[in-house]
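Figure 2 data, in text form.
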Amino acid sequence: MKIDLGDLSAFVAVARAGGFREAARATDGSASGLSDAVRRLETRLGVRLLNRTTRSVVPTEAGASLLARLDPVLNEVEHALDVVNGFRNTPTGTLRLNVPLSACRLVLPSIVPRFLAAYPEIRLEVTAEENFVDVLAAGCDAGIRYEERLEQDMVAVPIGPRVQRMAAAASPDYLQRRGVPGHPRELLAHTCMRARFPSGAAVQWQFEREGDVVRIDPSGPLLVEIGGAVDLAVDAAIGGLGIVYLFEDWLRPHLERGTLVPVLESWWPRFPGPYLYYPGRRLLPAPLRAFVDFIRDDAAATSAVPGTGPDRAAAAGTTG
């Protein structure tokens, strides 16, 4: 049975993206063209591969089985074509990253403009979400996460600041009205901006000083999900509603302007910076290889400048 490879690729793109429009955006194609390709494939195979509704497109049992077999095959095809890409003077192609919102705000802005300027023929696609995902199953080449959320079979390369801190802060007006807490446990008597992970688990506030670790679950009238709603908690704190607990770098502009004031700064906990992670395979797609080399060279150049090196060394390599 002769099957067009383009039709197979169209099916995989739609199944991965969960819709024809989404797949069209990811592939620079058209939704109608992808729909025609999937219909041709279904006609040729004599079986429905995708269940289509007005709200979603999901693989049938036959489609899921085909997708499971096609994914590794098409990945090998992409790798084979990428060997040719390696002979180009300038790498080309698409690099897809899955990252947390904090990386979009605090890590990538200082890297992406320079990387894309250095590699003008690479297209970068970034998906920001807080859940830990299988980057390959999500159709991505690599992700950015913190060490405790890395899988054991992944290659991890340090990216961004090597040491970060969590910070608590409030507006001057709030602290004047309610007083300045002198110990983390005093936060239980204060109004706090709470956050939860997409899983529903609440974010616990942790503080540390001279080996003394204090974890608390404060209360307050506002609860936001980690992601796009975090800025609402920051704005509420600036407006005098209560105390917010977030990445120090996220709050720094407000601390420098004085719209927020540090709270319990001597207790702010430090933790290792994030990592770029990807499956441990020998042949990397040219765009990913270029990105890995870029951040490694960037880290080396930064460390070579006096006073700008990382606070804590983090070696690249496989985790576990």
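Caption note: DSSP finds ten helices and 16 strands in the chain.
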